[in-house]
Each structure stands twice: as structure tokens, then as C-alpha cells.
Design goal:
232 residues; alpha+beta; four-stranded antiparallel β-sheet; two-stranded antiparallel ribbon; 6 strands; 49% helix
């Protein structure tokens, strides 16, 4: 699960940088320190929302059409961290006479690379779900492919007569939302015409007389109840 390890490293890097700036004088240092603290707060929000400990609905349920804020929060976290650590890296590179090349420089460089990774994997998510009319989820057992996916669900996008799929292997944020965030490389990607045919057949069956369609907003998942816990 490289995403969890890298995001955890980046969060602590922001936290350490924030504390270092707080002991320095000057308006600029205070602003940079506040920026790093904001990045930490955004990463905490992204994680809590992703593991569904933070839910906006009053009754703790997740509507079928609810928006998964996790990838957007991680994108903000990654971009903000990239800007802040790029500034720090630039300053260190300009002034090597004051310890610019050393442990701090190396850790700052790693933080920049981690920020790029976090940002890139969220962009990868948005590109996959760029067409909401032709993306969704399907049970792995129904896919027609020999897939073993975490949570038993496969992310699917239609392209012509082919289904482009992603099979989660480990971490999945917002698994009860219509667009769960599965960061690279925690999935297996492939394409299948068989899967597209099965989904088309299912949609065709749903349009037959006697089948009642329920708006996605009227359906709710109760994560705590699903895990055998109470909502208290």
C-alpha cells in the first residue's frame, strides 16, 4: 500500500515543517507555517472521509448519488504540499552555504516527489471517471472475468464495445460511494468485451416491464451497520 505510506510521510513532513516555521520570526514564516498546517488538516479530512468515519449525511448513511470528496481533498493536499516544499527546495538550493545541501535538502526533495505522486494519482482517478455517463461499479463475480478484487467490486468505464476496468487490490477510499478512490498502483487494470456484454444484458433486463427503477439518491448505504457496528 504505497499510497498510505507516502501520504503518511508527506503529512508528517508538513507537520515538521509547520513547527519549524513557527519558531522563526517574520510574517512570511508564519504564512508558510500556516500553509503546512492547512495541508495537514486537508490530508486528515481526506483520510477520515475516505475510510467513511466522516460522513456529511445526518443519519450516517451514504446516498447512491453522494459525491466522494476524498480524491479532491487529496489533490488539494498534494498540490498545496508541492507548492510549499518546492519553495523550500528552491531556497535551499539557492543558499547551500547555510546547510542547503544536506539532510533537510534531501527530505525536502523527497517531499516534493511525494507531493507529485499524490497529485498524479488523484488526476489518474479523475481521468478514469471523466465521463460519468459511462462509468460505474460492477460486482467482480458478475464481470465474466477471473478477478479477485478487494471489496468484491470492479471500477468500469465504457469505451465503445469494450469495458475498461480496474480491480482494487488493497486500499480503496470511499468504497460505498459511486466513484471510490483507488490510488495507483493499488489496482489491476484491463479491458474486456465480455464484461461490456454482461453489463449491457443487465441494463436491458432492467428496462423490461415489471422492473421498478429507484433513483440512486433514494438508496443509502450504512457503513457502520454493514461492518456490524452501531451508528452511535
Amino acid at each position: 500500500m504505497p499510497f498510505l505510506a507516502i501520504s503518511c510521510f508527506l503529512m508528517y513532513a508538513n507537520l515538521i515543517a509547520a513547527f519549524r516555521y513557527t519558531v522563526r520570526e517574520g510574517e512570511q514564516s508564519r504564512l508558510l507555517g500556516a500553509g503546512h498546517m492547512l495541508a495537514c488538516a486537508v490530508s486528515a479530512f481526506a483520510f477520515l472521509f475516505g475510510v467513511e468515519l466522516l460522513i456529511f449525511d445526518r443519519d450516517g448513511g451514504i446516498s447512491g448519488n453522494a459525491y466522494n470528496w476524498t480524491p479532491l481533498a487529496y489533490l488539494v493536499f498534494g498540490v498545496l504540499s508541492l507548492i510549499l516544499f518546492a519553495i523550500k527546495l528552491y531556497r535551499k538550493a539557492r543558499d547551500p552555504g547555510k546547510g542547503g545541501i544536506g539532510i533537510v535538502f534531501g527530505m525536502t526533495l523527497w517531499a516534493v516527489m511525494a507531493s507529485l505522486y499524490i497529485s498524479a494519482t488523484t488526476v489518474d482517478h479523475f481521468l478514469f471517471f471523466r465521463d460519468r455517463e459511462h462509468t460505474g461499479l460492477i460486482a467482480a463475480d458478475f464481470s465474466g472475468e477471473n478477478l479477485t478484487c478487494s471489496g468484491g467490486m470492479v471500477l468500469v468505464r465504457f469505451e465503445g464495445e469494450t469495458a475498461i476496468y480496474r480491480c482494487p487490490q488493497s486500499v480503496s477510499f470511499g468504497r460505498d460511494y459511486g466513484e471510490p478512490f483507488v490510488p495507483w498502483p493499488s489496482y489491476i487494470e484491463g479491458s474486456s468485451a465480455t464484461m461490456k456484454g454482461r453489463i449491457d444484458a443487465l441494463l436491458s433486463q432492467a428496462q423490461k416491464p415489471g422492473i421498478v427503477s429507484v433513483p440512486s439518491g433514494d438508496l443509502k448505504v450504512m457503513p457502520h451497520a454493514r461492518d456490524g457496528k452501531t451508528g452511535d
